[in-house]
Design goal:
Elements (H helix, E strand, L loop, with lengths): L1 H22 L2 E3 L2 E3 L5 H12 L2 H19 L5 H20 L3 H25 L7 H40 L1
Helix pairs in contact: 1-2, 1-3, 1-6, 2-3, 2-4, 2-5, 2-6, 3-4, 4-5, 5-6
């Protein structure tokens, strides 16, 4: 049951991520600003803490493959990034424990680093032609700010998913 709930939430978040790309770029003060939150990525990171690393690794692989196939520009960038950051999240929370502020900071920092990872790979392969500081100012920082707004919603979803898991264990 928990796996089905996680999968459905993941699909909805993947769709929401894609829907946000249709709104970007937005022109603000005659400058194009990109708001691309990584809702699915943040949810997978939160699953690492609340549902366990095995479950989050499974969904990191599953949704990584789905995104790589759907986007199709470079295969492997999402699956590798998701797996690497799930491992990093698991390692980070051996140090930070489950403090909400520390967790929010680590998840948003990982979101920023994942965005930089994608930028680095795409720029090395010459798929993107945006200068680094423009990328930081016009895409990475606005995306993290929007992600921060949605973090609380994802946090509640992750906790509810963990409660489904605990309820199933208690029943069995």
């Amino acid at each position: 049951m928990q796996m089905i709930v996680i999968f459905i939430i993941g699909l909805i978040l993947m769709y929401a991520d894609m829907a946000f790309t249709s709104f970007s770029p937005m022109t603000m003060f005659s400058v194009e600003v990109y708001f691309v939150p990584k809702l699915l990525f943040m949810y997978i990171l939160l699953l690492t803490i609340y549902a366990g690393p095995r479950i989050s690794m499974l969904f990191a692989i599953l949704f990584g493959v789905m995104l790589d196939v759907y986007i199709g520009s470079l295969y492997g960038i999402h699956i590798f990034g998701f797996i690497a950051f799930v491992i990093f999240m698991q390692t980070a929370f051996r140090v930070f424990y489950r403090d909400f502020v520390a967790m929010a900071f680590v998840v948003l920092l990982n979101t920023f680093l994942f965005d930089l990872y994608q930028y680095a790979v795409y720029s090395v392969l010459d798929f993107i032609a945006m200068p680094f500081f423009d990328y930081i100012a016009l895409r990475a920082i606005p995306s993290v700010l929007v992600s921060a707004l949605f973090f609380v919603i994802l946090y509640v979803l992750a906790i509810q998913t963990a409660k489904v898991r605990k309820e199933l264990r208690r029943i069995n």
